[in-house]
């Protein structure tokens, strides 16, 4: 198989990406079709879809190997399940599947791209295939999986230091990105490793867009300590 497209995403590293699709819908990603597949004919009719499936490669895990048993973060990192009973990226064939909301099909000369919401994909992720989401068959109303029967999010206020709040305001004003909403969606999913959640003073970092966001989670709040531009990037 060969990739047909590549993802352009706000997520610049694996840490902090929501572990499932549809949990950060305020972030728009772009699927850029590669030149040999970038044809208006190839996406004809796709604009009629509200959602699409993305079949992709866990490119950062290709050479990391796999194990028959994994420790899903949802189970606190203490219990093991078979790899085929999880969505671990460390698989015999590191392939993933995500449903995303299709915002726009853009055709500019010989360049074709798709704007999508809810993608849980690292910037640069190779896309193997794009398929329409079919509501009459892809929604299984009586489906069950007791291990993950509902979304678990932190119900905590997001509090900013004065300096972080000012950078957030400036960034939103310059780019139009709803940065505070994006930060809230990402951190309410609690990306911390399970075995480190008992340390409320530990400060973590997430790279989003061209920003380095430093934060910690206590019993009563998500605290944004600082927001700084990455050294390799310029201010918008």
From TrEMBL:
This is tRNA (N6-threonylcarbamoyladenosine(37)-N6)-methyltransferase TrmO. Keywords: S-adenosyl-L-methionine. PROSITE patterns: TSAA_1, TSAA_2. InterPro entries: TrmO-like_N, TrmO_C, UPF0066_cons_site, YaeB-like, YaeB-like_sf, YaeB_N_sf. Gene3D superfamilies: YaeB-like. Belongs to the tRNA methyltransferase O family. Coiled coil: none annotated. Pfam families: TrmO_C, TrmO_N. Residues 1-142 form the TsaA-like domain.
């Amino acid at each position: 198989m060969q990739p047909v497209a590549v993802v352009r995403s706000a997520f610049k590293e694996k840490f902090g990406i929501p572990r499932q699709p549809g949990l950060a819908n305020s972030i728009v990603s772009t699927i850029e079709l590669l030149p040999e597949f970038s044809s208006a004919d190839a996406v004809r009719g796709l604009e009629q879809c509200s959602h699409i499936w993305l079949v992709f490669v866990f490119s950062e895990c290709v050479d990391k190997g796999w194990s028959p048993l994994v420790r899903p973060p949802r189970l606190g990192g203490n219990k093991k399940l078979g790899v085929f009973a999880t969505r671990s990226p460390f698989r015999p064939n590191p392939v993933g599947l995500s449903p995303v909301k299709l915002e726009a099909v853009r055709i500019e000369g010989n360049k074709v791209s798709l704007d999508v919401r809810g993608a849980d994909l690292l910037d640069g992720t190779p896309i193997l295939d794009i398929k329409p989401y079919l509501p009459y068959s892809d929604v299984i109303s009586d489906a069950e999986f007791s291990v993950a029967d509902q979304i678990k999010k932190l119900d905590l206020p997001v509090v900013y230091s004065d300096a972080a709040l000012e950078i957030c305001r400036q960034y939103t004003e310059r780019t139009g990105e709803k940065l505070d909403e994006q930060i809230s969606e990402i951190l309410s999913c609690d990306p911390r490793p399970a075995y480190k959640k008992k340390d409320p003073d530990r400060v973590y970092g997430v790279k989003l867009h061209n920003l380095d966001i430093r934060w910690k989670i206590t019993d009563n709040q998500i605290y944004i300590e600082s927001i700084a531009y990455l050294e390799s990037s310029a201010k918008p």
